[in-house]
Structure formats: structure tokens, C-alpha cells
Design goal:
With 314 residues, the protein is mainly α. The chain folds into two domains: 93 residues, DNA polymerase, domain 1 (Orthogonal Bundle); 133 residues, hpI Integrase, Chain A (Orthogonal Bundle), CATH 1.10.443. The chain is 57% helix and 7% strand.
Length: 314
């Protein structure tokens, strides 16, 4: 497509045409992500010409999206504006005034307490519109699966006989995150519920997604739902809580360590936990043990106190 044509057409048309020129050079999963980014951007910038988009408008877009998506996703979306402007030779006009959103530092995240978990799911299952966020959160806290890994699950990745799910290369961030996860009763209920919903939405083929894409009354089982942060944040607001979807994965890992599960098994379940990260999780585990000891309370028997006093005087 000629660059003049991109510059002269509304963003929603120009972006689709630009993406067609990129199709031969993109992997299938990347192309699918780009298609989602273009649709999301077009809802906001649709009638503007690409060269009319200002840095202030991009910042407004970032603010609007922050309540619904992670910073990394928003940065990927904005990078398409950057690529299109570079194609037109006009990105330099914005470059000095554009800042990508800061990404959260690598940390073990928050370990959700049992009370917080109970409050979350009591709220989550009170509204049918939040069912996907509720079931995915339940699956995450019982398996260590992350949000992206679950959203990329296809029907073929679910084994309701063996009670397992398979995190495929499509959903795994790294090769070491490809794994088969066993399902306990809670996780199995979540997967069965999502599977039944997928069937109602037409997901009958093995390569259809467990969480099909839904837009109003339209649904497409050949595409997966891109995120569930809007519903997740509404649940948090209802329950007066504050944590991230990914914290359910962190909670699962921490609870296994607290329960004495060997680190090798935890790593196999989680797919990848670096040594530095394991040290941080181990610190959380140690603090939990320390709290457990303090919770014993009380004073030692008199006979033990006498022995302690003698030891101190020795």
C-alpha cells in the first residue's frame, strides 16, 4: 500500500491496510495479536488521520486503557501507531514527547490471604457477567496458570478424563512454561464450567478456544478472549480488594512452598521460577512459618523456663 494512501484515510481503514502489508512478515500469533490491537486502537482513533494523532492523544489513550489492560499490552498497542508513523516518516515529530508506560518490576507479587480469596470469589460468583473472570481466577489459584496461558487454551488442551490442562507453546511465555497441569476439584469445576460455556458459544472443534472471543451478541470460537481485566477490576471494587490477576499465580506458588512441596515440584508446576525469584518466594515462606510460630503464643511450662534460665546464666 502506498504511504500516501495510509496518510489520507481514517485510522480504522489505514491501520487495516497497513497490517495487510505486514502480514507476510509476521508469525501467526503475532498477526492475531496485531489484529486485536488494531481493533482496539480503531475504537479510539477511528476517524482521525494517522498524522493527526498527537502525543497528548496517545497519553489520553493510555489513561483510558489502564483500567482495562496491563501496561505491556497498552505499550504494544501504541507501538502500532509508532510503526505506522515511521512508515510515513513522521514519527520523529512525536518521538521526543512519547513515553511508553512503565512496566512493573519483576517481583513475586502479592500472596492473597484466605480471607481476601473468600471475599473475591463471593463477589465474583454473585454476577453472571463476571463468570469468566471468576472461573479463570479459580483455575489460576489452583494450578499456577497465568492469565495469558489460560486465555490461549484450546479445546484440545483440556482433558476432562485425565483431569489435566496443557499449557501450549501458543500461551507459554517461554519454552519452559510449556507443561501439563493436573486439576484438583476446584480447578476441574472451573474448567468444566468454561468448557460448557465454550460449547454453547460454538467451540466444537479441537482448535477452538476454551474462552472464545465475544463482542456483544457476536462470538468467534476461532479467536480467544483477549483479557478479563474489566470484569476482574469490577469484582475487586465490589469486594473492596486490591491485587492483580497474576497474583493468583503467585499465591498458588507461595502456598505450595508453605505446604512443604519440594522446590523442584513447584518449578515443574509453575513452568519457570528463577533462582532469584525462588529466594523471594522462600522469604515469604519463612515469614509465614515465623508467623505460625508466633501464633502458638503463651509461655513455656515452668520446667522449660527453668532450663532456659539456667542456659542464659551459664
Amino acid at each position: 500500500m502506498h504511504t500516501a494512501s495510509i496518510a489520507q484515510r481514517p485510522f480504522k481503514e489505514a491501520a487495516l491496510s497497513w497490517l495487510e502489508t505486514r502480514r507476510p512478515y509476521l508469525a501467526r500469533t503475532t498477526l492475531r495479536d496485531y489484529q486485536v490491537y488494531v481493533r482496539t486502537l480503531s475504537l479510539y482513533f477511528g476517524e482521525l488521520l494517522i498524522n493527526e494523532i498527537t502525543a497528548d492523544q496517545i497519553r489520553a489513550y493510555q489513561r483510558m486503557r489502564l483500567g482495562r489492560a496491563q501496561a505491556s499490552i497498552i505499550n504494544h498497542e501504541c507501538s502500532l501507531v509508532q510503526q505506522m508513523r515511521k512508515r510515513l516518516g513522521t514519527w520523529h515529530l512525536l518521538a521526543d514527547d512519547y513515553q511508553p508506560l512503565p512496566l512493573p518490576q519483576d517481583s513475586p507479587g502479592k500472596c492473597i490471604s484466605e480471607l481476601e480469596e473468600a471475599k473475591f470469589f463471593a463477589a465474583a460468583f454473585s454476577n453472571p457477567n463476571w463468570a469468566v473472570a471468576a472461573f479463570l481466577s479459580l483455575l489460576s489459584v489452583n494450578t499456577t496458570a497465568g492469565p495469558g496461558e489460560m486465555l490461549h487454551l484450546r479445546i484440545r488442551d483440556v482433558d476432562l478424563v485425565q483431569h489435566t490442562i496443557r499449557i501450549s507453546p501458543e500461551g507459554a511465555k517461554r519454552t519452559v512454561r510449556i507443561r501439563v497441569l493436573p486439576l484438583n476439584d476446584a480447578a476441574l469445576w472451573a474448567v468444566k464450567s468454561l468448557h460448557a460455556r465454550a460449547l454453547r458459544l460454538g467451540a466444537h472443534a479441537d482448535d477452538h478456544y476454551l474462552v472464545p472471543f465475544v463482542d456483544g451478541r457476536q462470538h468467534d470460537p476461532t479467536r480467544h478472549q483477549t483479557q478479563y481485566y474489566k470484569a476482574f477490576n469490577e469484582i475487586l471494587e465490589q469486594a473492596d480488594l486490591n491485587f492483580r490477576p497474576y497474583d493468583f499465580r503467585h499465591t498458588a506458588i507461595t502456598r505450595m512452598l508453605e505446604a512443604g512441596v519440594p522446590e523442584e515440584t513447584v518449578v515443574a508446576m509453575a513452568g519457570h521460577v528463577g533462582r532469584a525469584m525462588l529466594k523471594r518466594y522462600s522469604h515469604i515462606r519463612l515469614e509465614a512459618k515465623r508467623a505460625a510460630v508466633l501464633a502458638l503464643g503463651g509461655r513455656p511450662p515452668a520446667s522449660v523456663r527453668r532450663l532456659l534460665d539456667r542456659a542464659k546464666g551459664a
